[in-house]
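2024-03-11 09:14:02 DEBUG pipeline.ingest accepted 1 chain
2024-03-11 09:14:02 DEBUG pipeline.ingest length=224
2024-03-11 09:14:03 DEBUG pipeline.predict start
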Amino acid sequence: MGEMFTFFGLISENHDFLFVTHMVLSALIALVLVKVAMSNLQVVPTGTQNLMEAYISGVLSMGADVMGRENARKYVALVATIGLFVGIANIIGIIPGFEAPSANLNMTLTLALSVFVYYNYVGIKKQGVIAYFKHFSGPVWWLAWLMFPVEIVSHFSRIVSLSFRLFGNIKGDDMFLAVMLMLVPWIIPLVPFALLTFGAFLQAFIFMMLTYVYLGGAVAVEEH
């Protein structure tokens, strides 16, 4: 998307600069939304507070379906923060003059690694090192020699799953938008914009859901 106009490109066309500025912009927008929502808390929420409370309730309900309401409440702040940041990072790429930082593998891989390290840390902290990694051996002891390396590869593949799924989809959306703007630059392509917006929210939802699934698997080792 280097050939597309961006407002930050007026300062510098360096791709790393554009990526960092759009990522920081996404984080600032998320912080402003949260700050505005909490600036004047009311018993009967309105405006931004109502929107954010609905969002948090939705994230909590999603987590409750995966790992139970009690566990979901422990990690709702993490998952909701990731979802808000990723969602905004996806959305701003649809607005002409901006790029989606989530279309850069550096961001998606960093998020994926953060989730990977955190859910393993949570699992080890809750179950203990031996009990946590014992789960990797499977239910049948004599198949442990086969199951353990398979589980290790499976867990590391989650980094690829999280990072490349988000990166690939948003990068594809950016390329699709670039083509549409070149073909019909003077006519607002409403249908493509609607589809891209839906896709942006969908990818944020999938990232949150997978984060909950991985956390749920880590804290529920004993139950298996």
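2024-03-11 09:14:41 DEBUG pipeline.report The first helix runs from residue 15 to 39.
2024-03-11 09:14:41 DEBUG pipeline.predict end
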